[in-house]
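call fold target=ABC transporter substrate-binding protein
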Amino acid sequence: MRVPARLLPLPAALAASALLTGCFASTEATGADAGERIRVAMMQPPRSGLSPLSDDAFKLSRWSTAETLVKLDADGDPEPALATGWKQSGRTWTFTLREGVTFHDGTELTAEAVVRSLTRAAGASPKPRILDGVELTVKAGDAGTVAVTTAEEDPLVPQRLSSPQLSVLAAKAYRGKTVNPVGAGTGPFELTEVNGTSSAALDRYDDYWGGTAKAPGIDVTFVPDGTARAAALRSGEADIVEAVPVSQAALLDEDLITEVPMPRTNTLYLNTEKGAFKDPALRAAAREAIDAESIVKGVYEGRADVAEGLLGPALPWAAGLREPVRRAKAGDPSGKSITIGTFTDRAELPEVAAALQQRLEKAGFQVKLEVREYANIESDALAGAFDAFVLSRATVLDSGDPAAYLYSDFASDGSFNISQLADPAVDKALRKAGATPTGEARRRAVVDAEAAVLATDAAVPMLHERVIQGDAADVVGAAHDPRERELVTLDTHVK
């Protein structure tokens, strides 16, 4: 039986109710299904029709519908998933596929299926960011194996193949230029319905290779408004709510929320290619004007950590290796006009941008803000349309290793280079970090690469976020994943 939560104050409750009316209708399990379907309120709607070749892949992963050859343990080390083992020989890694796996359409997992999915991902434009700077080819081998070969020796191939953007789907998913994951995954839940950017539904897949899910299904509603997501938990309309805004966390019963330090950094990216911040001295002036501690206290209500670098407390080894960075001296920004962009999907970011506006105007800049939904602003940000951009960025989202994030965001040919940075010293440090074998030497090379980026002031890290997730009192086994890869698992269910 569902347990009612505390109600909102009346005006907020009415506003949230208007947003959520009908969102979770007809979700109760009937007939042979034991238990109740899990109702999930998610923050960002799909941007690419739930294509795994986009960031939508992480939704498929969080719903346990699409799977990869490899997954990561709590330490970020690779462990078996659709592949049971792997070995390296020079530039080639050979993966042994798990037997007895079927896709949701009943077809079998084969080496050819894996080759199809990975080859499609490797040739995508833009390619999955985990493959930034990586050229790979995939071939079917003997006895249920797949050989993955890279242009250069790559110690991180298993970790790369854990990225949800490299999920393996059935042949039916690939039609022309589109990838449709409906009924094409291998996980314990089958994606059965997608209603644009409003909702999605999944049913338990009883032939799942890993056992039987405890819940009969999942009903997902996309609720970009953070107040409305929190209201859904309070009113009992949702069982699991992701990304509860800090402004709402204090209004929820503490027993219903979980707060986990996560590898996510709130950063101000500065456009180094054109405009005011092409000048290193003005980038330095912006850096010196920012008061990150006041943002943590004021906007995040203390539920975040002031940044010492791009890599935060979720990667504790970074602090021990970090050394002071020599940066440019600040210039005079008087009268320089800048536009800062950010998005509404993460409720705190517009507030962060407003706080930055005040500080930068006090320093002498003339500041304009441009705030939209993420789906409507990402392309402009990547094209360098703004002088600065406030972004909440996961630093190990794809591989469990920050080298991929650093390359994606700061290499000359990085696919997410909002700062438009093209710095030979940074490129050299990033290449070294990516090529260094895993272990202490790689961690040191990663911190050196971080220092090279910070020395340019192309990015000003402000704070490291904590994930705040809401789970109703009758929810059992929801995942609390700092990497935001898992949410509803095989064991998640409603009492």
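return ok
The longest strand covers residues 257-270. Residues 10-65+187-239+472-494 form a domain with the D-Maltodextrin-Binding Protein; domain 2 fold (CATH 3.40.190.10).
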